[in-house]
Amino acid sequence: MKRIVILGGSFAGLTAAYKLKRNLREDAEIILISRTDKFWFIPSLIWVPFGRRKRDQISFDLKEALEKQGILFYHEGAKQIFPEKNLLTTEKRDLSYDYLIIATGPAYNFQLLSGLGPKTGYTHSVCNINEAEECKNAWEEFVKDPGPIVVGATQFASCFGAAYEVIFNVEHQLRKLKIRKKVPSITYLTSEPFLSHFGIGGMFGSRPMIEAFFKFRGISAITNAAIKEIQTNKILLEDGREVPFKFAIIIPPFVGQDVVRNSEGIGNEKGFVEVDHEYRHKKYKNIFAAGVAAVVPSPGPTPIPVGVPKTGYMSEVMAEVAAKNIIADIKNTKHKPKPFEKITPLCIMDAGDMEVFIVGTNMFPPRKFNALIPNIFGDWMKILFEKYYLWKMKTGRVYLP
Ligand SMILES: Cc1cc2nc3c(=O)[nH]c(=O)nc-3n(C[C@H](O)[C@H](O)[C@H](O)COP(=O)(O)OP(=O)(O)OC[C@H]3O[C@@H](n4cnc5c(N)ncnc54)[C@H](O)[C@@H]3O)c2cc1C
Known about the structure:
Elements: E1 2-7, H1 11-24, E2 28-34, E3 38-40, E4 59-61, H2 62-68, E5 72-75, E6 78-82, E7 87-90, E8 94-96, E9 99-102, E10 106-108, H3 129-142, E11 149-153, H4 160-176, E12 186-190, H5 206-217, E13 219-222, E14 227-231, E15 234-237, E16 242-244, E17 247-251, E18 254-256, H6 258-261, E19 287-289, H7 312-331, E20 346-350, E21 355-360, E22 370-375, H8 381-394
Parallel strand pairs: 1-2, 1-9, 2-5, 9-19, 11-12, 11-17, 12-13
Antiparallel strand pairs: 3-4, 6-7, 7-8, 10-18, 14-15, 15-16, 20-21, 21-22
Helix pairs in contact: 1-7
The structure holds flavin-adenine dinucleotide.
């Protein structure tokens, strides 16, 4: 019996675990290790600061869900991988494996810039539930005595979609609270070369749409921005400009998790894992990486460096491909690669009081087809999807769309 160990219990890790168990049944022992004991629907974190979503509405317990499917769950952090020995260490044990899937997502590099982040700086973040809840407290204080707002993403960040969603929600909340006029400026600050580049080179029709949304809502934008430093009430840019703020949410740069950075021969200098089109490690053929943990190609250089986003859907697809190829190894069947560039960009972007459904044929331009379809009747599709997705993942139905 083969032992397959999966590091990470989120979009990529959970998808891989269910897929492997469903196909291999008693032929493999599947163990999932996660530092968090819950699955979090991270896309809904953008609503936590404004009270629209609370922790219990967007999470479920991994242990119960996994054990129901016959998958072992260890709630602990993985510390180091020894690929030559097919062995890894965690906070609690040493564990050997036949196959390993690294799905540990990103760590957030707040240290890159002085003054960045809620712990060591002056900006807020919504990248995990604790930060999002801290941000909620700060927002509640801010609305009592408002001032200028900045929302954005630093150089090397790769989650621009979330920054757009946050700024639209901020503006919408101010209107709801009838204090929009008390806020002198709302600025979107981004390393993207143009609005709606998203780190994937943009999409046909996206730029005029986002520019119109900004104009209509009175949001100004600074693109090609490289942040030098953040001080108590202002952001200093490398080109000498200063952007004042009283409340700021800035997406930080992403790096790989410690377990990858501490393991020789596993990751690149940033701690992400180089993989082939099967999401298999370039050197160690029994190690795979999926989701944000994997290195993916880029659409080309930009004046200020940006990261390529790896959304929940892309993370799932990568994990599915990795799982299929492990199954092919074990059952000696045909391998099924899928290059990252061929994955469909697919997501719903919340725009405050409405949402936009985004779909395309492939990741980077030129694309045969892409569409951005606004839902002008509200922003309920994403909430419905959240509920459906949590049910799907809790019950292990990863074969559903
Ligand atoms: C604010 C925000 C909004 C977003 N909105 C959207 C959206 O609207 N749509 C969309 O498609 N995508 C969105 N994304 C992106 C989406 O959340 C990611 O694509 C997705 O979470 C990536 O999944 P993953 O499994 O690769 O990693 P993660 O979700 O980051 O999960 C990593 C897992 O690894 C575990 N882990 C980490 N280190 C260790 C360790 N050493 N040992 C054991 N376990 C470890 C963690 O506990 C976690 O379970 C958003 C992201 C953010 C931050």
